[in-house]
Protein backbone atom coordinates (compact mmCIF):
# COMPACT_ATOMS: atom_id res chain seq x y z
CA UNK A 1 0.00 0.00 0.00
CA UNK A 2 2.79 2.40 0.89
CA UNK A 3 4.24 2.27 -2.62
CA UNK A 4 0.80 2.80 -4.18
CA UNK A 5 -0.02 5.75 -1.93
CA UNK A 6 3.38 7.45 -2.19
CA UNK A 7 4.03 6.95 -5.92
CA UNK A 8 4.49 10.20 -7.83
CA UNK A 9 5.58 11.05 -11.35
CA UNK A 10 9.32 11.69 -11.10
CA UNK A 11 10.86 13.58 -14.02
CA UNK A 12 14.33 14.35 -12.68
CA UNK A 13 17.01 11.72 -12.10
CA UNK A 14 20.60 11.48 -10.87
CA UNK A 15 23.31 10.16 -13.19
CA UNK A 16 23.59 6.93 -11.17
CA UNK A 17 22.93 3.93 -13.41
CA UNK A 18 20.13 1.51 -12.48
CA UNK A 19 21.51 -2.01 -11.93
CA UNK A 20 20.38 -4.57 -14.49
CA UNK A 21 19.02 -6.80 -11.74
CA UNK A 22 16.65 -4.06 -10.59
CA UNK A 23 15.36 -3.61 -14.13
CA UNK A 24 14.64 -7.32 -14.33
CA UNK A 25 12.75 -7.16 -11.04
CA UNK A 26 10.64 -4.32 -12.43
CA UNK A 27 9.79 -6.47 -15.44
CA UNK A 28 9.02 -9.40 -13.18
CA UNK A 29 6.45 -7.14 -11.50
CA UNK A 30 5.13 -6.09 -14.92
CA UNK A 31 4.60 -9.68 -15.98
CA UNK A 32 2.64 -10.41 -12.78
CA UNK A 33 -0.16 -8.17 -14.06
CA UNK A 34 -3.51 -9.75 -14.82
CA UNK A 35 -4.63 -9.89 -18.45
CA UNK A 36 -7.77 -10.88 -20.31
CA UNK A 37 -7.90 -14.68 -20.30
CA UNK A 38 -4.26 -14.57 -19.15
CA UNK A 39 -3.23 -13.58 -22.68
CA UNK A 40 -0.16 -11.62 -21.47
CA UNK A 41 0.02 -9.49 -24.63
CA UNK A 42 3.14 -7.57 -23.64
CA UNK A 43 6.72 -7.07 -24.76
CA UNK A 44 9.33 -4.80 -23.20
CA UNK A 45 12.32 -2.92 -24.55
CA UNK A 46 15.00 -1.71 -22.16
CA UNK A 47 16.61 1.39 -23.66
CA UNK A 48 19.89 2.53 -22.15
CA UNK A 49 21.77 3.74 -25.20
CA UNK A 50 22.22 7.47 -24.83
CA UNK A 51 21.96 8.12 -28.57
CA UNK A 52 18.58 6.34 -28.74
CA UNK A 53 17.18 7.99 -25.62
CA UNK A 54 18.18 11.41 -26.93
CA UNK A 55 16.11 10.91 -30.08
CA UNK A 56 12.84 10.51 -28.19
CA UNK A 57 12.20 14.11 -27.09
CA UNK A 58 12.63 15.14 -30.75
CA UNK A 59 9.29 13.56 -31.65
CA UNK A 60 7.47 13.45 -28.30
CA UNK A 61 6.31 16.79 -26.87
CA UNK A 62 6.16 15.55 -23.26
CA UNK A 63 9.33 13.45 -23.13
CA UNK A 64 11.92 16.08 -22.25
CA UNK A 65 12.87 14.19 -19.08
CA UNK A 66 14.15 11.27 -21.17
CA UNK A 67 17.21 13.38 -21.98
CA UNK A 68 18.43 12.99 -18.41
CA UNK A 69 17.11 9.51 -17.62
CA UNK A 70 19.78 6.79 -17.51
CA UNK A 71 17.34 4.20 -18.81
CA UNK A 72 13.77 3.79 -20.00
CA UNK A 73 11.45 0.82 -20.34
CA UNK A 74 9.22 0.75 -23.39
CA UNK A 75 6.02 -1.26 -22.82
CA UNK A 76 4.60 -2.65 -26.06
CA UNK A 77 1.42 -4.47 -26.96
CA UNK A 78 1.78 -7.67 -28.97
CA UNK A 79 -1.26 -7.81 -31.24
CA UNK A 80 -0.59 -11.44 -32.12
CA UNK A 81 -1.19 -12.31 -28.47
CA UNK A 82 -4.32 -10.17 -28.12
CA UNK A 83 -6.57 -13.22 -28.35
CA UNK A 84 -9.33 -11.48 -26.36
CA UNK A 85 -9.47 -8.77 -28.96
CA UNK A 86 -9.23 -5.21 -27.81
CA UNK A 87 -8.12 -5.95 -24.24
CA UNK A 88 -4.40 -5.53 -24.90
CA UNK A 89 -4.54 -1.82 -24.01
CA UNK A 90 -5.87 -2.54 -20.51
CA UNK A 91 -3.47 -5.44 -20.03
CA UNK A 92 -0.47 -3.31 -20.97
CA UNK A 93 -1.70 -0.48 -18.75
CA UNK A 94 -1.87 -2.89 -15.79
CA UNK A 95 1.70 -4.05 -16.53
CA UNK A 96 2.83 -0.42 -16.78
CA UNK A 97 1.23 0.44 -13.45
CA UNK A 98 2.90 -2.57 -11.83
CA UNK A 99 6.27 -1.24 -13.00
CA UNK A 100 5.53 2.20 -11.55
CA UNK A 101 4.54 0.78 -8.18
CA UNK A 102 7.61 -1.46 -8.13
CA UNK A 103 9.73 1.58 -9.01
CA UNK A 104 8.34 3.45 -5.99
CA UNK A 105 8.83 0.39 -3.79
CA UNK A 106 12.53 0.22 -4.75
CA UNK A 107 13.25 3.91 -4.16
CA UNK A 108 13.56 4.68 -7.84
CA UNK A 109 11.62 7.35 -9.71
CA UNK A 110 9.76 7.14 -13.01
CA UNK A 111 6.97 8.64 -15.06
CA UNK A 112 4.38 7.19 -17.46
CA UNK A 113 4.90 8.81 -20.86
CA UNK A 114 1.93 8.07 -23.10
CA UNK A 115 2.45 6.88 -26.67
CA UNK A 116 -0.63 4.92 -27.80
CA UNK A 117 -3.19 5.97 -29.04
CA UNK A 118 -1.26 8.90 -30.60
CA UNK A 119 -0.35 7.55 -34.05
CA UNK A 120 2.56 9.91 -34.67
CA UNK A 121 4.27 8.89 -31.42
CA UNK A 122 3.63 5.19 -32.04
CA UNK A 123 5.05 5.41 -35.55
CA UNK A 124 8.13 7.41 -34.51
CA UNK A 125 8.96 4.99 -31.68
CA UNK A 126 8.45 2.00 -33.95
CA UNK A 127 10.83 3.49 -36.51
CA UNK A 128 13.46 4.39 -33.90
CA UNK A 129 13.68 0.81 -32.58
CA UNK A 130 12.83 -1.14 -35.76
CA UNK A 131 9.75 -2.62 -34.10
CA UNK A 132 7.54 -4.80 -36.33
CA UNK A 133 3.99 -3.79 -37.30
CA UNK A 134 2.35 -6.38 -35.03
CA UNK A 135 3.96 -4.76 -31.97
CA UNK A 136 2.51 -1.46 -30.75
CA UNK A 137 4.72 0.89 -28.68
CA UNK A 138 2.30 1.60 -25.84
CA UNK A 139 3.99 3.63 -23.09
CA UNK A 140 7.50 4.74 -22.21
CA UNK A 141 8.79 4.72 -18.64
CA UNK A 142 11.96 6.80 -18.16
CA UNK A 143 13.46 5.99 -14.78
CA UNK A 144 16.39 6.43 -12.49
CA UNK A 145 17.33 7.40 -8.98
CA UNK A 146 15.17 10.42 -8.16
CA UNK A 147 16.69 13.90 -8.14
CA UNK A 148 13.43 15.40 -6.89
CA UNK A 149 11.38 14.63 -3.82
CA UNK A 150 7.61 14.86 -3.96
CA UNK A 151 5.21 14.33 -1.07
CA UNK A 152 2.32 11.90 -1.65
CA UNK A 153 -0.49 13.41 -3.73
CA UNK A 154 -3.88 13.32 -2.12
CA UNK A 155 -6.29 12.75 -4.97
CA UNK A 156 -8.99 11.07 -2.92
CA UNK A 157 -12.40 12.46 -3.84
CA UNK A 158 -15.39 10.94 -2.05
CA UNK A 159 -17.59 12.46 -4.75
CA UNK A 160 -16.33 9.81 -7.17
CA UNK A 161 -17.85 7.01 -5.09
CA UNK A 162 -21.41 5.88 -5.76
CA UNK A 163 -23.48 3.16 -4.13
CA UNK A 164 -25.58 0.57 -5.95
CA UNK A 165 -26.38 2.92 -8.79
CA UNK A 166 -25.84 6.44 -10.03
CA UNK B 1 6.38 -5.84 -4.20
CA UNK B 2 4.99 -8.77 -2.24
CA UNK B 3 1.40 -7.84 -3.10
CA UNK B 4 2.29 -7.42 -6.78
CA UNK B 5 4.12 -10.73 -6.97
CA UNK B 6 1.56 -12.75 -5.00
CA UNK B 7 -1.66 -11.29 -6.48
CA UNK B 8 -3.87 -13.89 -8.17
CA UNK B 9 -7.37 -13.83 -9.58
CA UNK B 10 -9.62 -15.02 -6.74
CA UNK B 11 -13.08 -16.17 -7.78
CA UNK B 12 -14.32 -17.79 -4.57
CA UNK B 13 -15.18 -15.84 -1.40
CA UNK B 14 -16.45 -16.48 2.11
CA UNK B 15 -19.74 -14.94 3.26
CA UNK B 16 -17.90 -12.50 5.55
CA UNK B 17 -18.77 -8.92 4.64
CA UNK B 18 -15.97 -6.52 3.70
CA UNK B 19 -15.90 -3.55 6.11
CA UNK B 20 -16.81 -0.23 4.53
CA UNK B 21 -13.52 1.30 5.68
CA UNK B 22 -11.55 -1.30 3.73
CA UNK B 23 -13.52 -0.52 0.57
CA UNK B 24 -12.72 3.17 1.00
CA UNK B 25 -9.02 2.33 1.37
CA UNK B 26 -9.18 0.33 -1.87
CA UNK B 27 -10.66 3.36 -3.61
CA UNK B 28 -8.04 5.60 -2.08
CA UNK B 29 -5.46 3.33 -3.74
CA UNK B 30 -7.40 3.51 -7.01
CA UNK B 31 -7.38 7.30 -7.00
CA UNK B 32 -3.60 7.33 -6.47
CA UNK B 33 -3.16 5.99 -10.00
CA UNK B 34 -1.42 8.17 -12.55
CA UNK B 35 -3.49 9.50 -15.44
CA UNK B 36 -2.82 11.44 -18.62
CA UNK B 37 -2.21 15.04 -17.63
CA UNK B 38 -3.60 14.09 -14.21
CA UNK B 39 -7.10 14.02 -15.71
CA UNK B 40 -8.35 11.38 -13.22
CA UNK B 41 -11.21 10.26 -15.50
CA UNK B 42 -12.66 7.71 -13.10
CA UNK B 43 -15.83 7.06 -11.13
CA UNK B 44 -16.58 4.09 -8.88
CA UNK B 45 -19.75 2.28 -7.89
CA UNK B 46 -19.74 0.04 -4.81
CA UNK B 47 -22.34 -2.68 -5.34
CA UNK B 48 -23.38 -4.66 -2.28
CA UNK B 49 -27.08 -5.19 -2.91
CA UNK B 50 -27.61 -8.90 -3.43
CA UNK B 51 -30.41 -8.39 -5.96
CA UNK B 52 -28.20 -6.18 -8.13
CA UNK B 53 -25.15 -8.43 -7.91
CA UNK B 54 -27.26 -11.43 -8.87
CA UNK B 55 -28.32 -9.76 -12.12
CA UNK B 56 -24.78 -9.46 -13.44
CA UNK B 57 -24.05 -13.12 -14.34
CA UNK B 58 -27.27 -13.07 -16.39
CA UNK B 59 -25.66 -10.85 -19.01
CA UNK B 60 -21.92 -11.45 -18.48
CA UNK B 61 -20.58 -14.88 -19.51
CA UNK B 62 -17.53 -14.73 -17.21
CA UNK B 63 -19.11 -13.22 -14.10
CA UNK B 64 -20.41 -16.34 -12.37
CA UNK B 65 -18.31 -15.59 -9.29
CA UNK B 66 -20.30 -12.40 -8.66
CA UNK B 67 -23.14 -14.59 -7.37
CA UNK B 68 -21.09 -15.42 -4.29
CA UNK B 69 -19.18 -12.16 -3.85
CA UNK B 70 -20.37 -10.02 -0.94
CA UNK B 71 -19.47 -6.85 -2.82
CA UNK B 72 -18.10 -5.59 -6.12
CA UNK B 73 -16.49 -2.36 -7.24
CA UNK B 74 -17.43 -1.08 -10.68
CA UNK B 75 -14.72 1.10 -12.22
CA UNK B 76 -16.12 3.56 -14.78
CA UNK B 77 -14.58 5.99 -17.21
CA UNK B 78 -15.91 9.55 -17.16
CA UNK B 79 -15.74 10.77 -20.75
CA UNK B 80 -16.32 14.37 -19.68
CA UNK B 81 -13.01 14.20 -17.80
CA UNK B 82 -11.09 12.52 -20.64
CA UNK B 83 -9.44 15.78 -21.61
CA UNK B 84 -6.43 13.96 -23.10
CA UNK B 85 -8.73 12.16 -25.47
CA UNK B 86 -8.50 8.41 -25.66
CA UNK B 87 -6.33 7.95 -22.56
CA UNK B 88 -9.22 7.21 -20.19
CA UNK B 89 -8.96 3.47 -20.87
CA UNK B 90 -5.35 3.31 -19.69
CA UNK B 91 -6.05 5.58 -16.73
CA UNK B 92 -8.96 3.41 -15.58
CA UNK B 93 -6.88 0.27 -16.07
CA UNK B 94 -4.16 1.71 -13.82
CA UNK B 95 -6.78 2.53 -11.17
CA UNK B 96 -8.19 -1.01 -11.48
CA UNK B 97 -4.75 -2.55 -11.07
CA UNK B 98 -4.12 -0.40 -7.98
CA UNK B 99 -7.32 -1.79 -6.45
CA UNK B 100 -6.23 -5.38 -7.19
CA UNK B 101 -2.82 -4.87 -5.61
CA UNK B 102 -4.38 -3.18 -2.58
CA UNK B 103 -6.82 -6.12 -2.32
CA UNK B 104 -3.89 -8.55 -2.21
CA UNK B 105 -2.08 -6.38 0.32
CA UNK B 106 -5.09 -6.46 2.67
CA UNK B 107 -5.62 -10.22 2.50
CA UNK B 108 -8.75 -9.92 0.40
CA UNK B 109 -9.36 -11.65 -2.93
CA UNK B 110 -10.70 -10.22 -6.18
CA UNK B 111 -10.75 -10.66 -9.93
CA UNK B 112 -10.78 -8.23 -12.87
CA UNK B 113 -13.95 -8.86 -14.88
CA UNK B 114 -13.70 -7.09 -18.23
CA UNK B 115 -16.60 -5.01 -19.52
CA UNK B 116 -15.28 -2.37 -21.96
CA UNK B 117 -14.77 -2.64 -24.95
CA UNK B 118 -17.61 -5.24 -25.20
CA UNK B 119 -20.63 -3.11 -26.08
CA UNK B 120 -23.26 -5.57 -24.87
CA UNK B 121 -21.66 -5.77 -21.41
CA UNK B 122 -21.23 -2.01 -21.18
CA UNK B 123 -24.85 -1.40 -22.15
CA UNK B 124 -26.26 -4.03 -19.77
CA UNK B 125 -24.26 -2.68 -16.81
CA UNK B 126 -25.26 0.88 -17.64
CA UNK B 127 -28.93 -0.12 -17.72
CA UNK B 128 -28.68 -2.10 -14.46
CA UNK B 129 -27.30 0.86 -12.51
CA UNK B 130 -28.93 3.76 -14.42
CA UNK B 131 -25.52 5.10 -15.39
CA UNK B 132 -25.57 8.13 -17.73
CA UNK B 133 -24.24 7.98 -21.31
CA UNK B 134 -21.11 9.99 -20.53
CA UNK B 135 -19.98 7.35 -18.02
CA UNK B 136 -18.59 4.07 -19.39
CA UNK B 137 -18.71 0.95 -17.20
CA UNK B 138 -15.12 -0.23 -17.64
CA UNK B 139 -14.35 -3.18 -15.35
CA UNK B 140 -16.03 -4.97 -12.48
CA UNK B 141 -14.08 -6.17 -9.44
CA UNK B 142 -16.00 -8.73 -7.35
CA UNK B 143 -14.21 -9.14 -4.03
CA UNK B 144 -14.35 -10.64 -0.60
CA UNK B 145 -12.37 -12.70 1.86
CA UNK B 146 -10.81 -15.48 -0.20
CA UNK B 147 -12.25 -19.00 -0.02
CA UNK B 148 -9.47 -20.34 -2.24
CA UNK B 149 -5.71 -20.22 -1.85
CA UNK B 150 -3.50 -19.87 -4.89
CA UNK B 151 0.29 -19.85 -4.95
CA UNK B 152 1.99 -16.98 -6.79
CA UNK B 153 1.93 -17.41 -10.58
CA UNK B 154 5.30 -17.30 -12.25
CA UNK B 155 4.68 -15.58 -15.55
CA UNK B 156 8.19 -14.21 -15.99
CA UNK B 157 9.41 -14.77 -19.52
CA UNK B 158 12.87 -13.44 -20.37
CA UNK B 159 11.95 -13.78 -24.03
CA UNK B 160 9.68 -10.75 -23.69
CA UNK B 161 12.63 -8.50 -22.87
CA UNK B 162 14.47 -6.71 -25.67
CA UNK B 163 17.42 -4.33 -25.54
CA UNK B 164 17.69 -1.05 -27.43
CA UNK B 165 15.65 -2.35 -30.36
CA UNK B 166 13.88 -5.37 -31.67
Can you offer a commentary on this structure?
The structure is a homodimer of 166-residue chains. Chain A is of the alpha+beta class and 166 residues long. Chain A has one domain: 3-Layer(aba) Sandwich (NADH Oxidase), CATH 3.40.109.10. Chain A is 32% helix and 19% strand. Chain A has six helices and six strands. Chain A has helices at 2-6, 20-30, 50-53, 56-59, 88-105, 119-129; strands at 42-47, 71-78, 109-110, 113-114, 135-144, 161-163. In chain A, strands 1, 2, 3, 4 and 5 form a five-stranded antiparallel sheet that branches. The longest helix of chain A is centred in the middle third of the chain and has 18 residues, at 88-105. The first copy, chain A, is globular, with a radius of gyration of 16 Å. The two termini of chain A are 28 Å apart. The mean pLDDT of chain A is 97. Chains A and B meet through helix 1, helix 2, strand 1, helix 5 and strand 6 of A and helix 1, helix 2, strand 1, helix 5 and strand 6 of B.
In short:
The structure is a homodimer of 166-residue chains. Chain A is of the alpha+beta class.
List the helices and strands and how they pair.
Two copies of one chain form a homodimer.
Chain A: H1 2-6, H2 20-30, E1 42-47, H3 50-53, H4 56-59, E2 71-78, H5 88-105, E3 109-110, E4 113-114, H6 119-129, E5 135-144, E6 161-163
Antiparallel strand pairs in A: 1-2, 2-5, 3-5, 4-5
Amino acid sequence: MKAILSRRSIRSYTAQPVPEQLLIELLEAAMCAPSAGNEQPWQFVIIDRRDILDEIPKFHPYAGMVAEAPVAILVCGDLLRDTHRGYWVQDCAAATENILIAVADKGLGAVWVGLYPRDERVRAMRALLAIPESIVPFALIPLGYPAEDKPPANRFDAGRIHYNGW
